[in-house]
Write a structure and sequence with these properties.
This protein is of the alpha/beta class. It has 6 helices and 9 strands; from the N terminus they run βαβββαββαββαβαα.
């Protein structure tokens, strides 16, 4: 079966898909954690793999950057390829003084400055949220691993370079950090009646800029987040 952005056989994807933004992070997860991993999609270089983790069929595929991109890939996986749950494994910038580089955010909700939900023509403001069971289990896995984490709201921003520099303004409402994808993923899951969760590793901090990580570190060293997501899958 082919959609405009995925060329794979029906059944090629597992019921649960891990979704990093970076295709190289998808490749890293497949090569280092999955047994018998097979490349099932490579349209536009957005690599998708399916293999086995502890005997369980699991897929991993990149989403690219931003809500429009993850909106496309998650929509096609949910609606055409039988995927039941997508777990975003991404990176975020921290607004919170107790969140440092390599700590973890479990995004229970996703605020946004974007307009993705306008397509649903709702008579108000939709609040995109994660699946509670996935949130609960992710928190339990963080506890088991002894990692520093927080559960709460995250901001899905449509702007990486924000001319108004408004990011930290969200922190006064308890928003933990910023990334660029989760709100669209949560909207698609809600509309399709499926499950979604975003787990982010803190890659940089608005409070502690000296802790910022490199692109290579983001690609290869955020292993605790990967392992937590795999256990959920």
């Amino acid at each position: 079966m082919a959609t405009p952005h995925i060329n794979a056989e029906i059944g090629a994807f597992a019921k649960t898909v891990l979704m990093p933004g970076d295709p190289l992070r998808a490749k890293y997860i497949a090569e280092n954690y999955l047994e018998d991993a097979v490349l099932v999609n490579n349209v536009r270089g957005v690599q998708g793999y399916t293999g086995y983790y502890k005997g369980k069929k699991v897929s991993v595929m990149a989403s690219g950057m931003g809500q429009p991109s993850i909106g496309i890939y998650s929509y096609e996986l949910f609606n055409f390829f039988g995927v039941e749950a997508i777990i975003r494994v991404g990176s975020c910038g921290s607004f919170h003084p107790d969140l440092h580089a390599r700590d973890i955010v479990v995004a229970m909700g996703a605020c946004t400055n974007g307009n993705y939900a306008s397509q649903y023509n709702l008579p108000g403001t939709f609040s995109p949220i994660a699946d509670f069971d996935l949130v609960r289990r992710a928190a339990e896995e963080c506890e088991k691993k002894g990692v520093n984490y927080k559960v709460g709201n995250i901001l899905s921003s449509d702007m990486f370079y924000d001319d108004a520099n408004s990011g930290m303004t969200w922190s006064k409402m308890g928003v933990l950090g910023v990334e660029m994808e989760s709100a669209a993923l949560y909207c698609n899951a809600a509309r399709a009646g499926k499950k979604a969760l975003c787990i982010c590793t803190v890659s940089d901090s608005f409070i502690y800029p000296e802790e910022n990580t490199t692109a290579e570190e983001r690609q290869n060293s955020f292993t605790q987040m990967m392992e937590i997501a795999l256990e959920l899958a």
